[in-house]
Structures are given as structure tokens and as C-alpha cells.
Amino acid sequence: MTQKTDQDYILEVRSGNVNAYAILVTKYKDMMFTLALRMVGNREDAEEIAQDTFVKAYTSLSTFKGTSKFSTWLYRIVYNTSLDYIKKKKRVILSEHIDEIHEASIGTMQDAMSYLEAQEKKETIERALLQLPEEERVLLTLFYFEELSLKEITEIVHISYENVKIKLHRSRKKLYHILKNVVEPIYLSHGSRK
Amino acid sequence: MEAENKKLDQFTKEVIQDAGLSSPSVDFLANVMAEVSKEESLVKAQNPLITKVGWMIIASLFAVFTFVLTRFSLGFSILGDWDLSSLMIEKYEMNVDIPITYAYCFFFLLVFVIIQINFIKKYFYRSLKN
Is residue A82 located within the same domain as residue A123? Predict the structure, then answer.
């Protein structure tokens, strides 16, 4: 039996089977929630945004032409909804200063990261990500977790291909510095105790 | 520089993959589907009494009747021998003359009414939704 695609479920929803939408929600809820959470920084609001996005997507499903992937279309809606929310709240994110990075220090950081327990590591990374501007958190998630192409990312965040490339490069460096400031002192203090 | 970028790229990938995804609350799906069902019932409630096809049939029938009645007169009147001349307006010598200003006013009033119907419709839809 062949696996049903997103398009199959969309057709079912369009023909009146509302329950088919539950399958799509289940499939994308974690990614949608994560993107919203990385944009707004708190769980309650992220859940509300993710929920609104799924309802919006449902009501405008007839406008989905299928020229892009369904996931890309959903991510674009959650990104725009989160942006609207941020504009309402008028949150200001301070940008980080970027220093030069040396290859050897990346190795040290990898050691330091592997020293952390899985849960501790996850929490540390989440906290570090929250120090980046919202757009950059989303760019990193879409590129490194969802492994979308730069072209697909441009469709979601409405910035040029070159701009996505530059922002990704900058956000990589920023994240590295934030993590370095948090993780290395813990690693070094534990190392010196041993 | 190239090696350094590659290493940073790999490092970032590992970090983001390690962070993984966060999950919403357990009743997230139920909440979304409840909202979706609410939307669905609103859409159904919004369905007009006479559908587009219905209006098209009414318009076609009207056009056909008008055409038949004007082009193919049957040669008799269903009113028979009734003399309705006493009801004719001319008897009262009414001379109806609609001023151009009045015609414009009536036209704009009509436009406003049509626009307002849409606003009122949207207003009720929003209040039902919330």
C-alpha cells in the first residue's frame, strides 16, 4: 500500500473529510510549535500562535495551489502570525557582538557541548537561541533542523536569497559565541575540579 | 577560512539537531480540531438560502419568459374582457418627471446599501466567530 501524501490529505479535506486535517495537524504540530516558540519565546503564546495558524491554514486551504510544499506554506503562515504577534508586543531584541572564530576553539566547544547531559544540552541551546533575533532563530531551525533549501527559506521569510545566506552566516557565529559564553565556563570549572 | 566555516556549519547543525523539536500540550490537537469544527459550522451557517446555481436558474427562467412574452405574443389576454382602463394612470393626468439629482441620490443610496450589507455580514460573522 502506498503512503498517502500531504496532497492526498488536502484533497480529502477539500472534499469534506475534516478528520483528514487531524493527520496533517499531527504531522506538523511539533515543527509549527517549535517555530512559534523560537519566535515568541514562551510556550503559552507559541501554542496559541500554532493553533491559530492551523485554523487559518484550514480556512484558506482552498487558496493553497500546491506550487510549493504544504509544509513551506504552513511555515510561512506560522512565521507571519508570529511576526504579527511580536509587532503587537513590540519586543526589542538586542543584537550580539560578533568576534572572530578560530577553528581550534570550535573543537573545544564541541567537547564542551558533549560534556553536557542531553536534557541540559537541549535547555542550554534553547536559552542560547532565545538570545538571537527571532528571524535568525527561525532561519537556523529551517536550515539545520528541517534542512530546507535556501530557496525554500526565502519563500517563508520573504527575504532575498543572498540575505538568507548572510543572515545564516551571522546567526551561526552569534549562536557559537552565546554558547561559548555559557558552556565553556561550566566545562572548564568541572575540568579544573577533576 | 573555508575549513573554519565548514566546521562552524557542522557545529551549528549538531547543536540545532540536539535541540530538537518542542511539543505543544497534549490537548493541542483536540483544541485545533474543535476550532476547525467551529469554523466549519460557521461556513455552513453562512451558506446562502439561494445558491449561485439557484440564482442562475432564476435569471435564465426570467430571461426566457421575457423573451417568449415579448416575441411570441399569444394573441389573447388572460385578463379576458375585464376593463382595467379605469385604473390607468393617464386618467389622473399624472406627469412623472424624475429630476437628475434625485436619480443620482437614489443610485448612490443603492451603492451604499449594497456595501453596507457586506459590512454587516462581516460584522455578524466576526461576532459569531468570537
Answer: no
Residue A27: domain span? 6-89
> Which residues are CB-neighbours of B46 under 8 A, at least 6 positions away?
B125
Q: B81 in a domain, yes or no?
A: no
The three grid cell numbers given for residue A22, joined into one nine-digit string: 487531524
Claim to verify: residue A72 and residue A123 sit in the same structural domain: no
Residue in A34, A33, A51 with CA at minimum distance from that of residue A129: A34
d(CA A73, CA A54): 11
Average pLDDT value for residue range A8-26 = 91
Residue B117, domain member (yes or no): yes
Query: At B61, which amino acid appears?
Result: L
Q: What is the pLDDT of residues A142-192, one digit of tens each?
A: 999 999 999 999 999 989 999 999 999 999 999 998 888 877 776 666 654
Same domain, A128 and A50: no
- Residue A98 domain-assigned (yes or no): no
| Set of chain A residues whose Cβ sits within 8 Å of the Cβ of B21 | 30-31, 33-34, 145
Inform me whether the C-beta atom of residue B26 falls under 8 Å from chain A C-beta atoms: no
pLDDT greater than 80 at residue A39? yes
Phi and psi based region of residue B36 (left: phi greater than 0; alpha: psi -120 to 50; beta: remaining): alpha
Q: Alpha-carbon distance B60 to B73, whole Å?
A: 19
Q: What is the ipTM of this complex?
A: 0.76
Any A CB within 8 A of B7 CB: yes
Q: How confident is the model at residue A105 (pLDDT cuts 50, 70, 90)?
A: low
Residues A69 and A114 in one domain: no
- Specify if B40 maps to a domain: yes
* Interchain contact A103–B (C-beta under 8 A): yes
Q: What is the pLDDT of residues B83-125, one digit of tens each?
A: 656 665 555 565 667 788 888 888 889 988 888 888 888 887 7
Q: A127 and chain B: CB distance < 8 Å anywhere?
A: no
Q: How confident is the model at residue A47 (pLDDT cuts 50, 70, 90)?
A: very high
Domain encompassing residue B45: 24-74+89-129
With an 8 Å Cβ cutoff, are B16 and A173 in contact? Answer: no
